[in-house]
Structures are given as structure tokens and as C-alpha cells.
Amino acid sequence: MEALLAQPRGFCAGVDRAIAIVERALDLHGAPIYVRHEIVHNDHVVADLRAKGAVFVESLDDIPAGATVVFSAHGVSRAVRDAAEARGLTVFDATCPLVTKVHVEVARMRREGREVVMIGHAGHPEVEGTMGQVDSGIHLIESVDDVARLQVADPQRLAYVTQTTLSVDDCAEVIVALRARFPQVAEPKKQDICYATQNRQDAVKFMAPQCDLVLVIGSPTSSNSNRLREVAAKMGCEAHLIGSAAQLDPAWLAGRKRIGITAGASAPEILVTEVLQKLRALGVGSVRQLPGVQEDTSFPLPRGLARS
């Protein structure tokens, strides 16, 4: 058996920055540093930061007044920001700059008097944070069927934004349906699906036709990791999402010749290394990294945390 490695895979610039913010806050202020929601959706990352002194909470009510809190990479609503200020919390914002871009777009569209349609997954923290940038006039849709049911006040004054970690192809189908029903709908100045999501999905599209099994390394709560598994499956390749090497079922390898491996944008490379070690123990004889985009994007740390 041969293993193929997708390029790019794993951490994106927004995840690198978010983890660095928590680690730098711990260095400067000491433990505990509170983090609202998982900093990124990966169990390994969260466990590592917890061991260093980060305390993960879902509500600001669980944070003592005057403590230090980091907002997760997924972003938060205006109400959460206001509540943090009211409690006297010191805030370091790890919201991915590409998510912040969508927040700014939503605010601008509402100032222009447009209702906003957000294409995304209900309940995802990024969606909740983005929709919470405004008090009203924003609608969530997930599918083409939702477009048909959408009711708006003025079809001439409509705009859309998207969650940054969607399937590029699925999102395109929803946008086509939205434009067909609302021809005047305004679009973002630049695509909202982030570069890392696009690159990783493109890498899977290149890899999957060469494989008879694809393993996507990432947590089940990770939107972009789930989309990678779906992309591989739509290419006609059996695909499984695994959180670690321990979840790799040896039975999946029966009769396989080429196994493709990728990792979601919140999955560290150490998890890829461990999966490869297990695959070698199960009979994989060679590992080959495929050609692909070399990412060099980076985002600065917030004021107060930047290294001199």
C-alpha cells in the first residue's frame, strides 16, 4: 500500500494565530486564561492548551469579574462583546481576520438598508457570531430548498454573506439558486469562503481520484474537516473522518492500494504523523506528498500580545 499526502493540509493562518494568542496570554498574564468556546475545533489542541492553564467555558458567566478572556477563532456576537465589557474582563480577540471581514460586511450591508442572507450551518459558533453583529434583518439559509422558502421585505434590497468554512461547491449551488430567485441580490466584495478552506478542498479534489480510500484527520465538530470528507466522497472515494490514529479501523484498509490523507485547518501535523505511523504498522510501504499550493499567509497578534 501507498499513502498520499494532500498539500496543503492542517493548520491555517487563523488557527496558528488563535493558538498563539492563548499561549502568549498565558506567558504574559499567567494561568488561568479563560477562553470562550473551544479556541479551534480540535480536541488535541484544546487538551494541550488546557494543560498549559487555559480554562474553556461556554458562557462569560463562568468567568470571574476582571479576569482575562480570549474569544475563539470563530468570532462572537456584539452581545458577547458588550457582556465582557460590562464584567470588566480583559479581552484578547482571536477571531480569524477572515471571519472579522464577514462581520464588517454584514454591518455595512445593514447600514446600506439591505436585509442580509447568511449561508451557513445553524448552531455553528461562527454563524452565531456573524448573525449577532446586527439586531435584525438577517436570515440564515443552509440549502437550495431554504432559498425557495425565504421571505424578505424587499427583494431589491438584499445581500448575502457566507460562513468561511463551507463546501465551495455546495455553497455555489445555493448562491445560484439565490441569484435566480433574487436577481438583484448584492454579493460580498470578495468571496467569504476562506483561502484555506478553498485550498484544502481543491487538494482533496486532486488527491481523491488517485485513491481508493481517503482519511480526513479532524474533530467531528470541525466544519471544514467535515466538508473535506464530503468532498472526497462526492469524488466517488470512500472517506472517513478520524480524530486520531486510534480511530483508524484496520478493516478499512482491506484490498486498498492507495490511501489519501489530509487534515482539517484546525488539526495539528502531529496527528498526521501518528496516523502515518499506524498505517506503516498496518502495511503501508511508502508515503508520497502530492504537489499543491504553498501557503504563506500569516496574521499579526493583537495589540498587547505582539512580540517586540
The CATH architecture of the largest domain can be named as 3-Layer(aba) Sandwich
What is the strand arrangement across the widest sheet?
10-9-11-1-12
Corresponding CATH superfamily of the largest domain: 4-hydroxy-3-methylbut-2-enyl diphosphate reductase, catalytic domain
Q: Which range does the strand content fall in?
A: 15-25%
Residues in helices, as a percent range: 25-40%
- The count of strands amounts to 12
Number of DSSP helical runs: 10
N-to-C order of helices and strands = EHEHEEHEHEHEHEHHEHEEHE
Q: How far is it from the N-terminal to the C-terminal residue, by CA?
A: 48 Å
What does the overall shape look like? flat
What does the radius of gyration come to?
21 Å
Structural class: alpha/beta
Notable traits:
alpha/beta, Cobalt-precorrin-4 Transmethylase, domain 1, Rossmann fold, 5-stranded parallel sheet, 17% strand, flat
